[in-house]
Amino acid sequence: MGMSLLGIVFGVAFFVVTQAQTSGFEAFFIRTILGTNGAIRVSDRFQDIHGTVTKVSEDGQARFVFHSREGARYVEGVEYPEELRKATADFTGVTGVSEILEGSGVLDTGSRSHSVRIHGIRASDHIVVSDLEDQVINGSVKNFRDDRLGILVGNRIAERLRLEPGDRVILAGSHESLNLRVAGIFETGVSQIDKSRIYLDLSTARSFLRKPHGGSVFQVAIRQPENAPALAAQMQETFAHRVVSWQEREKVWLDVFKALRVSSAITVSTIILLSGLGMFNVFAIMVIEKTRDVAILRSMGFTPGDVSRIFLWQGALVLALGIVLGCLLAVAATYGISRIPLRIRGIFSTDSFVVNWDVSHYIWAVAIAIVVVGVASWIPARRAARIEPAKIIRET
Question: Model-level pTM?
Answer without folding.
Answer: 0.72
